[in-house]
Design a protein that fits this description.
Helix content: 10-25%
Strand content: 15-25%
Shape: extended
Distance between the termini: 69 Å
Order of helices and strands: EEEEEEEEEEHHHEHHEEEEEEHEEEEHH
Number of strands: 21
CATH topology of one domain: Chloramphenicol Acetyltransferase
Structural class: alpha+beta
CATH architecture of one domain: 2-Layer Sandwich
Largest sheet: 7 strands, mixed
Number of helices: 8
CATH class of one domain: Alpha Beta
Length: 505
């Protein structure tokens, strides 16, 4: 018999309470094995792929993609002991001809039992299996007239009276319009340009005053005078260009219509139709909560220092061309990270944490260097574990791997946990500096600005140098102004003269 087990959403991080179902990799009916990836979820820290703790057949997905559920909620059901088709009773696995039990003689079994004739002619079988023999019946109509059973009722066809359609007249002929009595009035003869007129011409010719003849009948001419229409401006639509009453009336309506007015542009609107609502969830929700907690818990202080990085940029070019760094992307961030690690050795208090509950300052003897990375899912800060023990080549490789993994949305919760100090490279966006907010649980964060060619004074002379701005934010409960300034000055000194790294470490 099938044995069903439910897979409940686990805590994929450190104390997480909920997650969003991003993508299912299985569907009902699929066979899964232990540790096979079945679903991808997005926690408050990262996107995580979860393996199956059971082997068997998937019977039901309990949560749809895009839904956010609490930790401990059942999301999947697995039949861990399927017999044939998953989740189907054993009787359904038999051959089709075995599904219909033989009918015994009438009276041999009690009516209504499985395998016996039931009242009404139906054969009692297992629910959902076997044939049934039922005489189709219709319920009686509400008016008491029984419905037809099996044969269509024959209704007498209704006799339709033929309708007499009158032909539509497109336009009344001018010959059918009785002319209105017109009082005789003196007519001043107009000079007419003689033109040959056909004997059958239905309209009288006249001039429009410009030497062009006008064809219109007397009633039409009178209508034009009454309506104030100049026949010389009307194009006739009748045979041979004869002007009709419709032409005159159309000209009168056109003259009466006002000039078209260009509508004024619609006033701009500011309402919900021009708004977009984005649910706050996943990484962005966690980041927002963490930043608010950090900003209103740790008293932030930010200091700036402009640094001449010309020598560091020259060193970067030499290192990138060396055999030891072949195939490695060497960026200013790598050298800034190395300078920060050297400064931490001289000022270990900067690499510490404030324990409010224990009322203690926890100084870390290791540096888990956080690298802030902007991704389509929001800002994430994975960290290089024990970065102080790595060589410059290993540090460059680790930073490159972390940032690429973060942009692909594959950062694990472990990579984002346990950070001790952070560096953020805002220079890649062309920004010179800012006031970075501390990553929760840390004491300092360094922002590296863009490296620009800038006029700079060297040995009393003005020249062009590669200049960068550093921004350091720190928790003033642990780091006072003197310590923060000395720490930032040491980072700047190494970036100004990389040879000092030999003296520092």
């Amino acid at each position: 018999m099938p044995t069903f087990k439910q897979f409940r959403l686990p805590d994929a991080g450190e104390g997480l309470t909920e997650a969003e179902i991003l993508k299912w990799y299985v569907k009902p009916g699929d066979m899964v094995t232990v540790n096979q990836t079945i679903v991808e979820i997005e926690t408050a820290k990262a996107a995580v792929e979860l393996p199956s703790p059971f082997a068997g057949a998937v019977t039901e997905l309990l949560v749809a993609e895009g839904a956010t559920v609490d930790v401990g909620t059942p999301i999947l059901t697995v039949d861990v002991d399927p017999e044939g088709a998953p989740g189907v009773p054993p009787a359904a696995q038999a051959q089709p001809e075995d599904l219909v039990p033989p009918l015994p003689d009438e009276g041999a079994v009690e009516p209504g039992l499985i395998g016996s004739p039931a009242p009404g002619g139906r054969t009692a079988v297992l629910v959902g299996y076997g044939p049934r023999s039922v005489v189709a019946k219709r319920r009686p109509r509400k008016n008491g007239v029984p419905a037809a059973t099996g044969q269509a009722a024959t209704a007498q066809p209704a006799t339709a009276q033929p309708a007499t359609a009158e032909p539509a007249t497109a336009e009344p002929a001018t010959a059918q319009v009785a002319p209105e009595p017109v009082a005789p009035e003196p007519v001043v003869p107009e000079p007419v340009v003689p033109e040959p007129v056909a004997a059958a011409e239905p309209a009288r010719q006249g001039s429009n005053g410009h030497g062009v003849s006008v064809l219109a009948k007397p009633p039409v001419r009178k209508l034009a005078r009454d309506l104030g229409v100049d026949l010389g401006t009307v194009t006739g639509s009748g045979d041979g260009g004869v002007i009709t009453r419709a032409d005159v009336e159309a000209a009168a309506r056109s003259a009466a219509q006002p000039e078209p007015v260009t509508p004024a542009p619609a006033a701009p609107t500011w309402d919900a139709s021009r708004e977009q609502r984005i649910p706050i969830k996943g990484v962005r929700k966690h980041t927002a909560a963490a930043m608010v907690a950090s900003a209103f818990t740790a008293p932030h202080v930010t200091e700036w220092l402009t640094v001449d990085m010309t020598e560091t940029m020259r060193l970067r070019d030499r290192v990138a061309a060396s055999r030891e760094f072949a195939g490695v992307k060497v960026t200013p961030l790598v050298f800034a990270a190395r300078a920060l690690l050297l400064a931490v050795r001289r000022h270990p208090m900067v690499n510490s944490a404030w324990d409010e509950q224990a009322q203690e300052i926890v100084v870390k003897e290791y540096v888990n260097l956080g690298i802030a990375a902007a991704t389509p899912r929001g800002l994430v800060v994975p960290n290089v574990k024990d970065a102080g023990r790595l060589t410059t080549r290993e540090l460059a490789d680790a930073i490159k791997e972390l940032t690429e993994t973060a942009r692909a949305g594959k950062t694990t919760p472990a990579d984002m946990s346990g950070g001790t100090i952070t560096i953020t490279n805002v220079g890649v966006f062309g920004v010179d500096g800012g006031t970075p907010i501390l990553n929760p649980g840390e004491t300092a964060i360094l922002a590296l600005g863009a490296v620009r060619e800038t006029p700079w004074v060297v040995d009393g002379e003005l020249t062009v140098r590669q200049v960068c701005q550093l921004s350091l934010s720190f928790d003033h409960r642990i780091v006072d102004g003197q310590l923060g300034s000395e720490f930032l000055a040491d980072i700047a000194a190494v970036l100004t003269d990389p040879g000092l790294a030999l003296a520092f470490g």
